[in-house]
Amino acid sequence: VKVKIPFGNKYLDAIFSVPEKKSTYGVILTHGAGGDMNFPHLLSLAAYLASHGVLCLRFTCKGLNVAYRTKAFKTVVEYLKLSDDYKLYGVFLAGRSMGSRAAASLIRQLSQSDDGDDDFIRGLICLSYPLHRPKLQSKLRDEDLLFIRCPVLFVSGSADEMCEKQLLEGVASKMKAPKKIHWIDKANHGMAVKGRTTDDVMEEINAQVFSWLRENVELEHK
What we know:
By secondary structure, this protein is of the alpha/beta class. Helix content is 34%, strand content 23%.
């Protein structure tokens, strides 16, 4: 279902992937610095989640400024929260690369604001989190991650030139949030692995994301 979400004097293009049965939780998903919401990995994940009963709303925001992207993400969260068509108990924020930085930044902002995030946001999914620029491991983009309290899933390639394995594990050990890292063996930042098809890699990612979501939703109902 295509929608246009008002954002300042513009609109954000977005698409709902709707499960057959009514969904109680949703995932909001966005792309990295390049591309848009129709990036193949996002299409694949959204279709997988919807076929497994999870509503997925993916959106495009072309800005290359993290603060701008964060603002757009906030607008989409508020739009879904107030939606009459889809009444959800909560959402998980998900993004690829720069999109995951914007999601992390928003969760930190909301957790530090006076009204708090009132439990609507249940967790964060970081696909290829860009922890540092290529070859610039001394400057880590970890400040938002260290403030987050909700559950976090990282899915990263073990050969990602923007997220060195030991560095992400070091940041994760300092995080206060419940967290899990799933390494895609020999994958680069774009999740390409020599000798494996894109579909094969995406199947692994999609299954990991869904099982983590299910664990976190089930925990709440125990």
